[in-house]
Amino acid sequence: GDALHYQALLQTIRSEDLADPELYARVEQMMDVDNFATYHIVELFFAGRDWPQNNIKFWRPRTADGRWRWLLYDADSTFGGGANFDSLARLLVPSSPGATPAWASELFRGLFASPSFRDAFITRFCDLLNGPLGPERTVGLLRMGLGTIAHEMLRHLARWRHDRPAESALTQWQGFDASMSAWLEARPNHVRAHLAAHFGLAGEYTLSIEADPPGSGTFHLTAVDVEAPYSGRYFTGVPIQVTAIPAPGLEFAGWGPDLPESPTLRLTPEGDTTLRATFR
Fold it and tell me: Does this model's pTM top 0.85?
């Protein structure tokens, strides 16, 4: 059953050398590693304090090839501590303040024995910090959410908040906009510093992607699809992968001299890099 399948996954993580691509591929057949990585990135970014020793849910289709997948659950205790809170340390460093029990982070820690998982995790984190977890996106969503419920808050507080007058509680609630927005603005740079420290990353560079002519194609990165012009921050020494996707009716015509003809590039830049895909 499910319990035996999950125990088999844990046993593989514990006993096999995941640096061997064939053995890592066996793990990929048992769990959706991309889903697992994205799930952890979101939890780590928002710094939930009662996770992963609590509030963790995962599932698999009950089929012979069903893989484990994780889902976000009960995020009430996120925005934990200051924006500089090192949530990665809780999972990776047993002696860190508030470290999680070993069983709760065993699968996460074990996967980093695979260079493929390590590189993909770091690049996926950068993709998300450059877009969906960047302040332009997160602060906008926060304010949209606050605006959606603002007209109900006074009635809500009058009904449920009994330790102070509703008007006073409303003033406190309205202050969350500024404090949470500031947290979201500052969080990406702190998370980048944590990634660099825990994984021994030496530096950063800017990746720019252009389409020629403009609007003639999009680009698939590790975690996101983006339009050109695109600019994002990544870590030196960590491979990235970019796939050019032509707009309907067009075809990929190349990246320019000295680069492969394939629409998918895998490279490890050591400094600021501009990629320009031509479509026709």
Answer: yes
